[in-house]
Amino acid sequence: MDALIRTFAERGDLAHVALLLWALAASLACWRMLGELARASARFDAFIRELARFNAHYDDKP
After folding, report:
1. b/e per residue 45-57 (b: at least 16 CB within 10 A)
2. pLDDT value for 62
3. What is the C-alpha to C-alpha distance for residues 60 and 54, in angstroms, rounded to an integer?
4. Its pTM surpasses 0.70
């Protein structure tokens, strides 16, 4: 592992590795956020459907 780090440090590629790791972490965070957003949207859609069913059930009653 030391040889690998030394090779990157000597060639100046350590900054590129750090940038790659940052980009991967940011992309992973974005994918997780989009997944959570999709799940929240599905829950909201289910809530709206249940609300519509409730309203339809009680709108017919005098």
Report:
1. eeeeeeeeeeeee
2. 61
3. 11
4. no
